[in-house]
Amino acid sequence: MADLRQAIASGAFGTNGQLPSEPALSQQLGVSRPTVREAIAVLEQEGLVIRRHGLGTFVMSAVVELPNILNVNTGITDMIRSAGKDPGARKATVSTMAADERIAGQLGIMPGTSVGVIERTRTADDQPVALTRDFVRLDHLSSHGLLPERLQSFVGGADSLYSYLSSIGVAVTYGVAKVLPARATAELAEALELKPDADLLLLEQTDYNSAGAPLLFSEEYLVPGPLTIYVFRRGPG
Where would you find the membrane-spanning parts of this chain (predicted)? Predict the structure, then answer.
């Protein structure tokens, strides 16, 4: 599905945006027709394509052209790049903690279970735009070699945590996000170079694997303005 999504984003299907037939796509991508059919169904749910009875499947160009659309599960790194800026990170730290009731509830574990914590101030063209905290379920991922010392080697840069997990064989299939208003505490204000009590956007998200097991829970404090987030909403018709 990643290849098909990338082809759609790059405008590979021409000015009218019509996708080839399922057999043709199956041959082009080297996958089975059921796989193509499932991928198109997911992309339709995301608002990237629409099926028109008797005509075929077409790209929703008005949606595809939007950067940072919330119904597509991308991380802060990709959000910054899609805004045409260079992603970076400051004051990146990794630690472990005993999960409190809130974190444990999000990750489906018992309170007191050890989790990895990654905190980074994210920058776009060296300007702070977000502070992110990722709480990683170590007990579930240890079989893939995801140990605190490996997180330590990863956390120094601006690389995507999703890409890192994928590199060790852990696929994030979907996420459930909640968008909340927030104000900058003294700690957040210092990290993001803002005045205390400045308005922020808080994105809380739990990410899951294909079996529906939670993998990580994230808190992302976004500075309004530098990163605009869009949401696709299917109409009543």
Answer: none
8 Å CB contact between 184 and 194: yes
160's tokens: 């995507």
For 142, residues 6+ apart whose C-beta sits below 8 A from its C-beta are none
Whole-number Å distance between alpha carbons of 178 and 235: 21
CA angle 90, 161, 119 (to 5 degrees): 40
Distance separating alpha carbons of residues 138 and 149, to the nearest angstrom: 12
**126 Cβ contact list (under 8 Å, min separation 6):** 86, 88
- Give CA–CA dist 44/58, Å, rounded: 10
C-alpha 213/C-alpha 129 separation (Å) is 30
Ordered by where they begin, the domains of the chain are 2-64 (1.10.10.10), 76-222 (3.40.1410.10)
φ and ψ of 30, to 5 deg: 70, 35
The answer to whether 84 touches 78, Cβ cutoff 8 Å, is no
Beta strands, E only, 5-65: 49-52, 56-59
Averaged pLDDT score across all residues of the chain: 81
pLDDT digits (tens, 9 = 90+) for 148-197: 666 666 665 667 788 878 887 888 888 888 989 999 999 999 999 999 99
State yes or no: pLDDT of 82 exceeds 70. yes
Residue 132 three-state SS: strand
Say if residue 26 is exposed, middle or buried (CB neighbours under 10 Å; 0-12, 13-18, 19+).
middle
